[in-house]
């Protein structure tokens, strides 16, 4: 199947085309109306002239042939129908209709005006072909200013559109000449009011990108720092294994090395998970039963809990269906359970609960561990932060991953003291609309 290419278009060209087509249409329409109006006005003027000539002849003013003599014919009839006067050899038809009429004499179309008086009947005729030619000349004279002004108007409109779009061109040049790392705000000086929201949104985008780049730079620096310590420890443990004098010492060094490798793998996996989260699009929502989700998370971490003789289970067992991202919620539960297993002393207890209240659905992981001092709660979501005085070894990334995923879901993570177990209660508050 052929790949469809995205069509592009020019705002300037489209505006010019639409406006010029509109001007052209209006010009043609106006010219047509002016032409027909001028023809009608000329026709009335020529009829009036015929009538005036007839009245002049009736008043005794003789018809004086001039430049237009070939267009007119004058004929005077007596009461008995005899011809008293004829201005040329064309003999007009006997008057049958008073006032204006059209006739054809010797192949020539004529416009005739007939005036009857007690003494005689006067006929004034005008060559219709010559009359219409003169009318067209007059009509064209009325239309020409409109046709001449249209191109000037089009040029003026083109200049106005070009000037109106100039701020966009300046903005394009301003962005095109920037260095890759230059995310300073665009200047809105001289920008039209309609374009200012776009400039504001671009500046907001630049600010978000700047924050992201800074966060990534800090993340890379922190990751390098955090990886240096376990890698150094692995090197020392490997050297200890190489220098071991007997099998017992060598086995102890290998065991320590294996544990260090496992911790390093866990750290790298968490780093990769956090990096993928920041560059990954939002997960598609689906119908989820929170009870089934909690059981799945418990089954995945049950072996680790049993290794420390921890009682891990569900505090509530009732179906609760919501619409959200299954993968994201599982990732949150896994990290909360990993934290609880890591910091809860052997023989302790970890519960997963879920429910719904006035705020909406929620998930909670509670443990019987030492909890987190209230003063440290605001900082535990920071990357690589570990609570001072903690004996458990951790990367300081678990809660950072939890917060990142929760924010993508529009959820909140609340930490506090567990009323039932005495340790930490980590509660995920899902938005009410996912219910």
Automatic annotation (TrEMBL):
Protein's membrane topology: Multi-pass membrane protein
Give the enzyme's EC designation. 2.7.13.3
- Could you say which enzyme class this protein belongs to? transferase
Matching entries from CDD domains are given as:
HATPase, HisKA
Q: Where is the HAMP domain?
A: 162-214
Q: Does the keyword Kinase apply?
A: yes
Q: What is a GO molecular function of this protein?
A: phosphorelay sensor kinase activity
**Top-level taxon of the source organism:** Bacteria
Which controlled-vocabulary keywords does the entry list?
A: ATP-binding, Kinase, Membrane, Nucleotide-binding, Phosphoprotein, Transferase, Transmembrane, Transmembrane helix, Two-component regulatory system
SMART domains on file: HATPase_c, HisKA
GO CC annotations on file:
plasma membrane
Q: Where is the Histidine kinase domain?
A: 222-434
Q: Which Pfam families match?
A: 2CSK_N, HATPase_c, HisKA
Q: Which residues cross the membrane?
A: 146-168
Q: Which reaction does it catalyse?
A: ATP + protein L-histidine = ADP + protein N-phospho-L-histidine
**Where would you find this protein in the cell?**
Membrane
What SUPFAM superfamilies does the annotation carry?
ATPase domain of HSP90 chaperone/DNA topoisomerase II/histidine kinase (SSF55874), Homodimeric domain of signal transducing histidine kinase (SSF47384)
The record's annotation in PANTHER family points to: SENSOR HISTIDINE KINASE YKOH, SENSOR PROTEIN QSEC
Record protein name field: histidine kinase
């Amino acid at each position: 199947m052929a790949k469809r290419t995205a069509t592009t278009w020019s705002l300037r060209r489209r505006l010019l085309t639409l406006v010029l087509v509109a001007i052209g249409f209006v010009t043609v329409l106006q010219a047509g109306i002016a032409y027909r109006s001028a023809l009608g006005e000329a026709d009335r003027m020529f009829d009036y002239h015929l009538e005036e000539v007839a009245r002049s002849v009736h008043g005794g003013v003789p018809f004086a042939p001039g430049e237009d003599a070939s267009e007119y014919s004058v004929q005077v009839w007596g009461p008995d129908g005899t011809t008293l006067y004829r201005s040329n050899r064309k003999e007009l038809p006997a008057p049958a209709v008073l006032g204006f009429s059209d006739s054809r004499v010797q192949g020539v179309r004529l416009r005739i005006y007939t005036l009857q008086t007690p003494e005689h009947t006067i006929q004034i005729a005008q060559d219709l072909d010559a009359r219409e030619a003169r009318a067209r000349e007059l009509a064209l004279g009325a239309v020409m200013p409109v046709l001449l002004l249209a191109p000037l108007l089009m040029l003026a409109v083109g200049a106005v559109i070009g000037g109106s779009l100039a701020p966009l061109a300046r903005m394009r040049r301003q962005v095109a000449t920037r260095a890759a790392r230059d995310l300073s705000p665009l200047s809105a000086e001289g920008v039209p009011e309609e374009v200012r929201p776009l400039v504001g949104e671009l500046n907001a985008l630049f600010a978000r990108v700047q924050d992201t780049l800074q966060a990534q730079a800090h993340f890379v620096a922190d990751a390098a720092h955090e990886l240096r310590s376990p890698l150094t420890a692995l090197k020392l443990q490997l050297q200890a294994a190489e220098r071991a004098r007997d099998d017992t010492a060598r086995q102890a060094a290998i065991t320590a090395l294996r544990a260090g490798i496992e911790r390093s793998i866990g750290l790298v996996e968490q780093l990769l998970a956090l990096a993928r989260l920041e560059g990954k699009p939002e997960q598609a929502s689906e119908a989820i039963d929170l009870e089934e989700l909690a059981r799945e998370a418990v089954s995945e971490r049950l072996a680790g809990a049993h290794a420390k003789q921890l009682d891990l289970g569900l505090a509530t067992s009732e179906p609760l269906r919501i619409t959200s991202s299954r993968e994201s919620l599982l990732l949150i539960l896994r990290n909360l359970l990993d934290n609880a297993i890591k910091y809860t002393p052997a023989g302790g207890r970890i519960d997963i609960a879920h429910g719904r209240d006035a705020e909406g659905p929620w998930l909670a992981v509670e443990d019987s561990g030492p909890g987190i001092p209230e003063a440290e709660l605001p900082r535990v979501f920071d990357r690589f932060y570990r609570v001072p005085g903690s004996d458990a070894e951790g990367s300081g990334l678990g809660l950072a991953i939890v917060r990142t995923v929760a924010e993508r879901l529009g959820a909140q993570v609340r930490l506090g003291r567990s009323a039932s177990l005495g340790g930490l209660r980590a509660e995920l508050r899902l938005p009410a609309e996912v219910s």
